Amino acid sequence: MEATSASGAPCEAAGPAIFAYDGSDLAAYAIEQAAVQLAPGREALVVCVWQPSDVGFMPIEGRHLHAAAANEVAEAAKETAAHGAEIAARVGFRAQPLTVEAAPTWKGLVAVAEDHRCGLIVIGSHQRNGLLGHLAGSVAAATVSHFESSVLVIHKPH
Questions:
Q1: Helices (H), 91-138
Q2: Which residues are paired to 97 by β-bridges?
Q3: How many whole angstroms separate alpha carbon 63 and alpha carbon 58?
Q4: pTM for the full model?
Q5: Measuring CA to CA, which residue among 97, 75, 100 is closest to residue 85?
Q6: Cα–Cα distance, 102 to 15 (Å, whole number)
Q7: First CA to last CA across the chain, in angstroms?
Q8: What is the C-alpha to C-alpha distance for residues 116 and 83, in angstroms, rounded to an integer?
Q9: Which residue among 3, 9, 76, 120 has the highest number of C-beta atoms inside a 10 angstrom radius?
């Protein structure tokens, strides 16, 4: 997995927060709600995980991509992460965008957190009910079960 950031610098040992950002309204809502829960001015990495075989996020401005064009997907992931970092900065975080190529998504989030010694991952989650919701699995559930530090899961009210 290759992670890239604007500065290329590793996170501080105290650990910034990682915001999982896929361009969705739910991911933006999670960042906004984290601002209510976390100290203002905290360092944050806004991470967009992408996959060349399955785009894995919603490109901004309704852009349509073909997963086979990995260079286009990587560029759109950078744009998406930058958009998420703008949201995070607007609500009070010192945010940097970061992209990572990984599958499944939770592996990319956990790898970035471990590589940068980050102690918190913030992620939005759909509230799924019933057997289908449990069998389908979710990025949030997988992240919680595989990350050894804290995960703040934000649910958007219906």
A1: 105-115, 130-136
A2: 46
A3: 8
A4: 0.79
A5: 97
A6: 22
A7: 35
A8: 21
A9: 76
